[in-house]
Amino acid sequence: MFYIIGLGLSDEKDVTLRGLEAIKNSTRVYLEAYTSILMIQKERLEAFYGKELILADRDMVETESDEILHNAANEDVSLLVVGDPFGATTHTDIILRARALKIPTRVVHNASIMNAVGACGLQLYGFGQTVSLVFFTETWKPDSFYDRIKENADLGLHTLVLLDIKVKEQSEENLARGRKIYEPPRYMSIPTAVSQLVEIESLRATGILDPNRTLAIALSRVGGGDDNQRIVAGTLAELLAHPADAFGEPLHSLVIVGKRLHHLEVDYAEDFAINRETWRVVARDVYGCSLD
Question: Whole-model pTM?
Answer without folding.
Answer: 0.92
